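I have a small job for you when you get a moment. Can you supply me with one protein entry, sequence and fold together? It will help me judge whether the discrete encoding reads sensibly. Write everything out right here, beneath this request:
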Amino acid sequence: MKKILIISDTHRYDDNFFRVMEKEAPVDLLIHCGDIEGSEALYAENAHCPVHMVAGNNDFLSGLNREEEFMIGDYKVFLTHGHYYNISMGSDLLRLEAAERGADIMIYGHTHRPVVDMSKGIIALNPGSLTYPRQEGRRPSYIIMTLAEDGNAEFEIRYLTH
């Protein structure tokens, strides 16, 4: 089984990243959906696994790509922060782009609200924010994706407690 940690919108406040890593390690892959604000090397160095990261709207001087496409098992993943697709207004534009790219899973951030939506043909994942959560209850959130030996993926939104 593979364990993938998906995080977003840490905004250079990295304490909760270390708390999540302490709780969830080891992980086989780290995915960061942007708004890292200069902590890219910190995450890459401390994840102890391969890392996929994209630039968010606050990553002004980042050398990160604004989008990535990669495979996790048999799933084609489209990773973006979401702000180029007006994600705050809904996921339709991002879903259209993900479909055009042949993605099975679209992973995004920006809204600071966690989402696991498997209802419209493309799996939509947003881990929320580890730093500035905006959903009801405002708990820092992330997603654990597990990939079973048979290739099937499961997704769980998890929360940090104080």
